[in-house]
């Protein structure tokens, strides 16, 4: 399952997997406790594949940040908790994404990224590669 089906719902803890759409919104299942909720179209919902992190030059898609964390942690959970002190979180994120924009990426954002990454790893969602198929391999003559 890719990040296209993983959601963050404002006001609700953790992440949710999109189950189905309804006339008035959609049904999602929590990745924390597997409980299903109905979310209206008026709710603020973010799809993880659409989120990006500000750097000094560009915006880096969240999937790339997750890949960098995965490489640093050798596929396991993060070595720090999202509840650690501000300075530890900033140092960790600087190791993962050295050119992140410290003025626009807040500690609360870093906490979410770390927490979301650990939730995805716990649920065995570990393929953060791009869904796009590269055509380089198919152009061989």
Automatic annotation (TrEMBL):
Domain DUF5606: from-to ranges = 3-48
Residue ranges constituting the DUF6852 domain according to the UniProt record: 51-120
Q: Which InterPro entries match?
A: BVU_3817-like_C_sf (IPR049281), BVU_3817_N_sf (IPR049282), DUF5606 (IPR041218), DUF6852 (IPR049280)
Q: What is the protein's given name?
A: Uncharacterized protein
